[in-house]
Amino acid sequence: MKKISFFLLFLPVVMMGQNDPTHDTSDQDKMAWFQDAKLGIFIHWGIYAVNGIDESWSFYNGYISHEDYVKQTDGFTANNYDPEEWVRLIRDSGAKYSVITSRHHDGFALWKSRYGNFNAAQNSKAKKDVLTPFVKALRKYNIKAGIYYSLSDWSHEDYTHFTSDKKRYDIKDAPERWDKYRNYFQGQLMELTDKYNPDLYWFDGDWEHSSDEWQAPEVRKMLLDINPRVILNSRLQGQGDYATPEQGMPIVKPKDKYWELCMTMNDSWGYQKNDRNYKSSDQIIGIFADVISNGGNLLLDIGPMADGTIPIEQVQIMKDLGIWINKHQEAIYASTAGIPKEHFYGPSTMSKDKKTLYLFIKGNPGGEVVLRGLKNKINRVWVVGEGTKLNHTVLGKVYWSEYPGIKYIQVPDYVLDNHMTVLAVLLDGEINLFREDEKSAGGN
Predict the structure, then answer these.
(1) How far apart are CA 336 and CA 293, in angstroms?
(2) Residue 388 and residue 421: Cα distance in Å, rounded?
(3) How far apart are CA 35 and CA 39, in angstroms?
(4) Which of the residues 195, 257, 387, 404 has the least number of beta carbons within 10 Å of its own beta carbon?
């Protein structure tokens, strides 16, 4: 324990945050699978599913006592838990990776940890490690494994914060106590790395302390020294590889090269039986299209029940999403961000060679869709997933102007998808867009 703390305290600092321009070719190579994955499934599973209350926050904010919160361990049975069934559902949803909460802010660990004494194997009705079989199933089905880990642990006696109105101590008054806590969380991270060697760490809970207090650069180096290809999210006080906006779809395309929107299906991360406010499959498909149009990934959350059952509403959404993605996969996986919305009023993506443009159409466009400012000649247009070739016309192009005119693509009702239709537009070369801010069209 002391050895870990001493080693980390004197590691050289390696600053490689998500906005660091020193990211090199090896970093881009490491991030390639993540950039192509497009969809991941987030899993919030813990004792909070027993009473269907907010994970960790319910006792932190005083809605329930910590003592009553912890009593939920008696109802965490995992009786119907089938990790392979979970992973098959994840695979069929079209997701290429999954992230599971190994330990939330409440300190309850899903694996049998040598550090601390609050985990599923020792302290719950389940009496077993429920994390290991899930990671094994992910590996079996070739799904990338992501581990969520909260840096904070509000239940741990050596952590600074307990509830919103109660703090155990200040670091400056008890530095040796903070060292003990760092030994604990860094020890758990080493344990997770040794046991699972995850493809991705999804950190959370970093806001209560500074980068220096967490030893964030040293933690990053520790993990990358063991596995140089492991990916870290941004919630390690700036030491991550990609940004993680939460719940709200960014209005403006993020500046980060790599980013991921994490979002719930209803209004809750963990299972809450009273939360029936689910987004429809259409709405989630629409949000997913917006995310990939802007060059990001969607990390869509599910919250299993305490017995391991995934709610039927969540299962149905994942199945609907998977059917739609499978039909339109050529426009999704390995695509890049699409064109600005001034050119097409909807989501879009492009092939990596930038010679095929994919247009995502919400609802019924009334017979046609419009492309503005496209200089390229269109060689062919077809409906993705069913192949029908579509006609198009160009209007407004005059010989004395560089303005390329307006391209109208005819979309008959019979080719429309039940959720969202996707068109492939094959161009005569790399996409070339006309922008007035680059060169005026001239004339009047």
Answers:
(1) 8
(2) 12
(3) 10
(4) 387
Section 245-268 average pLDDT: 94
User: What sign does the CA torsion over 85, 86, 89, 91 have?
Assistant: negative
| DSSP codes, 153-204 | -TT-TTSSEEETTEE---GGG-HHHHHHHHHHHHHHHHHHHHHH--SEEEEE
The 3-state DSSP class for residue 101 equals strand
pLDDT recorded at residue 438: 60
Strand 39-43 to strand 97-103: parallel, antiparallel, or no bridges (unpaired)? parallel
Residue 375 three-state SS:
coil
Rounded to whole angstroms, how far apart are CA atoms 130 and 136? 11
CB proximity list for 439: less than 8 A, separation 6 or greater: 402
Q: What angle do CA 251, 252, 253 make, to 5 degrees?
A: 120
Work out the pLDDT band at 115, boundaries 50, 70, 90: very high
Pick from 434, 372, 443: nearest CA to 401: 443
- Which pTM does this prediction carry? 0.92
What is the predicted pLDDT for the residue at 334? 87
Banded model confidence at residue 27, pLDDT cuts 50, 70, 90 = confident
| 233: three-class secondary structure by DSSP | strand
Q: Tokens 């909260």 belong to which residue? A: 150
**Bridge partners of residue 144, in order along the sequence:** 97
Looking at residue 299, its amino acid is: L
Find where tokens 């869709």 sit.
Answer: 369
Q: Please enumerate in sequence order all residues whose Cβ is within 8 A of that of 91, keeping only pairs 6 or more positions apart, or say none.
A: 141, 143
Helix (H, G, I), strand (E, B) or coil at 219: helix
From CA 422, how far away is CA 339, in angstroms rounded? Answer: 15
Please answer whether residues 192 and 102 qualify as being in contact, where contact means their C-beta atoms are separated by less than 8 angstroms: yes
Per-residue confidence at 300, pLDDT binned at 50, 70, 90? very high
Pairing type for strands 356-362 and 161-163 reads unpaired
Spatial distance between the Cα atoms of 205 and 209, rounded to a whole number of angstroms: 9
**Cα Dmax for the chain:** 79
Each residue's pLDDT tens digit, 140-171: 999 999 999 999 999 999 999 999 999 999 99
> Mind listing the domains of the chain with CATH numbers?
2-327 (3.20.20.80), 336-427 (2.60.40.1180)
Check residue 107 and report its DSSP letter: -
